[in-house]
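Tokens for chain A. Residues wanted.
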């Protein structure tokens, strides 16, 4: 098993702290009963550029943070569901680091990354909607009491809204991490550059 270094522990702790802080300070878009906080997923998405282990630790740490913060329990459950897409996405980036660069360089538009982003956003949204649907059926027993009905809330607000939210947040994380990687070693970006260098030298 890969050794978890002090550096990664420190990065993980900072990302967990940011993930807990951001929902309290960033602007929210509120539509009916649903709300979307700008950049709330960015710390977890950044962790995915390091390793599946760091992504898992940030996802679990964020879940515990929300559980201890006194926020509604559904927020904790939604955070817990993030372990699914974060592990899947981080694992894929470990296998396909070239996804983040184009010919070894960062480009403002990278279709490979955007396609990957879309798949992660779909997984993110589906799992989160399933968690919220299950919670509402078990806890409330009548999810249709939402304004506009259950279909509008779960599949339009949570579904479409959540998909867009995930796409935007992952792009923020992507651009921020790409900029930082020029001065600071980010594993997936470093692996992508090394892979291109080996291919160019072959």
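Reply:
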């Amino acid at each position: 098993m890969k050794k978890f270094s002090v550096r990664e522990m420190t990065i993980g702790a900072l990302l967990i702290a940011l993930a807990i802080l951001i929902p309290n300070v960033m602007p929210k878009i509120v539509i009916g009963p649903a709300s979307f906080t700008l950049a709330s997923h960015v710390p977890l998405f950044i962790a995915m550029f390091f390793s599946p282990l760091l992504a898992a630790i940030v996802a679990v740490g964020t879940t515990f943070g929300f559980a201890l913060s006194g926020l509604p329990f559904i927020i904790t459950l939604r955070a817990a569901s993030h372990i699914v897409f974060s592990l899947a996405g981080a694992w894929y980036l470990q296998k396909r680091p070239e996804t983040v660069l184009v010919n070894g360089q960062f480009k403002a538009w990278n279709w490979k990354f955007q396609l990957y982003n879309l798949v992660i956003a779909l997984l993110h949204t589906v799992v989160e909607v399933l968690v919220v649907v299950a919670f509402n059926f078990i806890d409330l027993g009548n999810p249709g009491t939402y304004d506009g009905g259950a279909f509008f809330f779960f599949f339009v607000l949570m579904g479409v809204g959540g998909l867009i939210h995930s796409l935007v947040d992952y792009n923020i994380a992507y651009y921020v991490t790409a900029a930082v990687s020029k001065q600071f070693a980010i594993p997936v970006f470093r692996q992508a550059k090394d892979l291109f260098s080996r291919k160019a030298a072959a």
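The radius of gyration is 18 Å. The chain has a mean pLDDT of 87.
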